Structures are given as structure tokens and as C-alpha cells.
Amino acid sequence: MKYDIIIIGGGAAGFFAAINAAELDPNAKILILERGKEVLTKVRISGGGRCNVTHAEFTPSELIKKYPRGEKELRGPFHSFMTGDTIAWFEERGIELKIEEDGRMFPVSDSSETIIDCFLSETQRLGIEILKNHSVQNITSENEQWLINTNNGDFSAEKLLVATGSNPKIWKLLEGLGHQMETAVPSLFTFNIKDERIKELPGVATFASVKIPEINMEDEGPLLITHWGLSGPAILKLSAWGARELNELSYKFKIQVNWLAHQNSEEILEQLLELKLKHAKQQLTKYAQFDLPKRLWKSLVLASGISETDIWADINKKQLVTLSEQLTKSEFSVDGKSTFKEEFVTAGGIKLNEVNFKTFESKLQKNLYFAGEVLNIDAITGGFNFQNAWTGGYLAAKAMTSLD
Ligand SMILES: Cc1cc2nc3c(=O)[nH]c(=O)nc-3n(C[C@H](O)[C@H](O)[C@H](O)COP(=O)(O)OP(=O)(O)OC[C@H]3O[C@@H](n4cnc5c(N)ncnc54)[C@H](O)[C@@H]3O)c2cc1C
User: Fold this and answer.
1) Which of its termini does the chain have fewer beta carbons within 10 Å around, N or C?
2) Which UniProt keywords apply (predicted)?
3) Is residue 331 within 8 Å of residue 123, measured between CB atoms?
């Protein structure tokens, strides 16, 4: 069966590309091939079932900073299609998005089904064919046509978009077409830590800066203590930026936490000496200082060799030095990782220097396009991974339907 455009992968990028291509060229015969028995499965479970569609960040130079892999390459594409365009695109189809306090954007319905319904009705309206249970097994080309073999029949098309997400199974086929793949490693995970200082503190959250000296990486943001260790945006960002290096360390490394984010141990020591004079008769553990959560303050005080009943006047300089260090550079040993709210992305995929980011076309094979997570692009959490799928899907659609 012959098509103008075949899209492999019925996920976010594949649907967005198909719909835009059909709108740009209503005569194009378009097919989506999906190996699963359902399409858009990740959209359905995304954002805890609410689908974090995009992020309220409207400056391309700021937006690209959310992509540990793809930062440089997405700069141009975001000037053509980015968050504002996504919002308008859904609005034109009757879907309003709302902004949460942290900038994440969700459908007002708070349901990913709204996005799925929109995609399914648009594909139907535009006459896009969707074949489920069609797993692509082979890709070859002959006489400027792509030949696609699936477990359920063969198809051909002039233009081919691969939007298979982070499933490495299709990578072998792409390698057969000359492409090189960056190996897959997980991104967006939390750090497993067993440590007396945080053992009794699950649920405690504060703003902190975090550093992994071994790979020379640091970040800051809300930090959350969990039953397993440390989580929250500060940790997730480190896990994304350090995805490859932390994998090489087999997720065993040391992390330094500055619970006071922007102050160093010398500055804190001076303030502790002042507090000692000011509160001489007061028990240290009784009143938290520096706006720290009370239970955290107490735990760090105890970890500095100070007892629960000690008053400020009893504390010697050495103990205060230790406390200043606990407050600004607590060291923890990480041993392993956990998944964050079941959400994860994979770092890895098509090497970015093999793709033309004006069109998302392969530089090695004419009429072969890529969009979404199949590329070696991924972002921190917040709606940025879908934005990559929308941007790539849109620009590939535009290129596949242009008359040149
Ligand atoms: C639990 C969870 C929650 C998430 N929540 C969010 C969120 O709220 N916001 C956000 O921005 N990101 C989120 N993400 C990340 C986001 O889902 C992905 O970045 C995004 O789905 C990538 O889109 P894609 O189209 O490239 O790939 P996918 O959505 O993975 O789609 C690829 C499709 O290709 C199909 N396929 C693969 N191989 C073949 C083959 N050989 N033949 C035919 N079909 C094939 C797959 O079955 C799949 O349907 C979340 C991820 C997870 C796991």
C-alpha cells in the first residue's frame, strides 16, 4: 500500500506531525503505524494522568536551558515553533491550557484524555489512517520510496518520519540506514540514600543547593527528603544533567547539600557565633534557625555532636564549625536510584549532528525525518519533553509537505 507520508510511532510526536502535515497538505495520504494495541499510551499516563503539555517559558534562550541534551540544536526550532505556538494550537482546537504556580501547563480539564480526544478527532477529521498492532520490522528504500515491513503487512511512502520514542529496538534499523545512536541511559530519577540524618525526616522540604563534586555538577531548587533518600526539582535536575556520568558511576557517588543554598560555611560560622551570644541560655535544638524546617535543624545539630539539651552557651567553637559545615556542605553517599512518580525519560538516540534541525530531516538519508524522543534530546521535568515532541513534529510536518 502506497502513501505520501508514513509515520512510525503513534505517540506524541507522531500524532502532532501527522495532524499538522494533513492540515498543511490536505491531499497527502498519511499513515501512522503503531506497534501497540493502543496509541498515545504515554500521553495518557503523563503528568499523573493530567498531561503536562508544555511550560510557561516564552523566551527561546531560556527554554533551551531545560534540555541537557538538545540545548544547542533546539534554539533554531524554538524560534519557529515553541510554547506559545503549542498553547495557540490547542486553543484553536477548543482546548484551554492553564498555568500552575511553577510554570507547568495542563489542560483546564486536568485530564490527559482531553489531549487524546483532540488528537483522535483531528486524525479522523483529516482522514489520517492509523494502524495499531503494526510493529515495524524493517526499513529499506528503493526508487526514492521507503519500504516498510511490519508484522502485519508491507507499506511504502515517499517520506518517512520515525517517531518511535525511546524504544531502542528500532535503533538497529536506523543503524542499518547509516545512523549512529547515542546509547540509552535513564534520566529524571531520585537518589537512594541511607543516612541517620535524614532517616526520620521523610516529607521535609526546603530550598537547597546540591553538588556532585566527582562530576563537577551543581544545581539548586526545592529539595525533598523521602523514605528512600533525596528527591525534588534540585535532585531531578542533577539526574538529568548528569544522566550519562552518573550511569558510568553505577549510581554510587557522593553528594554535598548546602541546606542554606547561597551562604558558605564561613558566613554561617559568624552568624552562629552571634547566635551563641544572643541566645546563650536557650536550648539549641528547641528553635530552628535560618528558616530551616525544625526537624531538619534538630537533626543537623545532633549530627554536629551537640546534644538535645545543650544550650548555646555550652557549645564550643569546634562544634560550631562542625554545625556550620553540616548546614552548608552535608555530605551524603548515594547508592542507587529510584523512579520519580513513574515519570522518566531516556537520554540517548539519534546523534544530533546527523540531523538538519531546520527540517528534522536526516542528513544521511533524503526524505527520512525524526521527531520526539527518538532523537538524543531530553529535558528536565515540567512539560519540556512534550514541547520537544510538538516542535519536532510540527517542523518535520512542514518540511515533509513543502513543495521543493
Ligand atoms: C509516566 C510518564 C509521565 C510523563 N509525563 C510527562 C509530562 O507530563 N510532560 C512531559 O513533557 N513529558 C512527560 N513524559 C515524557 C514524555 O511522555 C515523552 O517525552 C514523550 O511521550 C515522547 O514522545 P514520542 O512521540 O517521541 O514518543 P512516545 O510517546 O513514546 O511514542 C512512541 C510510539 O512509538 C511506538 N513504537 C515504538 N517502536 C515501534 C515500532 N517498531 N513500530 C511501530 N511503533 C513503534 C510506541 O509504541 C509508542 O506508541 C512522561 C513520561 C513518562 C514515562
Assistant:
1) C
2) FAD, Flavoprotein
3) no
